Amino acid sequence: MTLEITPLDAPLGAMVRGWNPKAELSSADLGLLRQAMREHLVLVLRGHAQPTDAELVRFGQQFGELYKGSELFGLNSVAEILRINNVVDDDGKAAGLLASSDLDWHADYSFMPVVGKESFLEAVELPRRDSPPTSFCSQYAALERLLAANERESF
Fold this sequence. Notes:
- It is a single chain.
- This protein is of the alpha+beta class.
- The protein has helices at about 25-40, 55-60, 70, 140-155, and strands at about 5, 15, 45.
- A three-stranded mixed β-sheet has the order 1-2-3.
- A hairpin with a 6-residue loop joins strand 1 and strand 2.
- It starts with a strand and ends with a helix.
- The relative contact order is 0.12.
């Protein structure tokens, strides 16, 4: 497999093409993805078949131990996959856990004693245009700006 990584025209992020969920990542490709994560912070993988739950778990485990979010929230699902959606039933009751209207700014699993290094998000169905967007921010950039502002204020 040959991965192609193209930086996005944005403060952070890169597009990754060439990932095959059915194939095991080579050590070279895994190293390339790890380097791209350090450099770009957010990676968008596109142009592949929808992975199965087992393929998603296998992919994530190559980066380290995964939280068992479904167990943590008492859900009957694949332990390492926490399903979140905006689907509501005919009575207006949320069908998924923590629909985006309930999740303003947050950092995944920030309430845990050890915060994960990475989060993986798979968009199976994109929300309507009037739904809140999924956004990412760089806490590194925020810290740098705070430090720079502090230096300007300190005489």
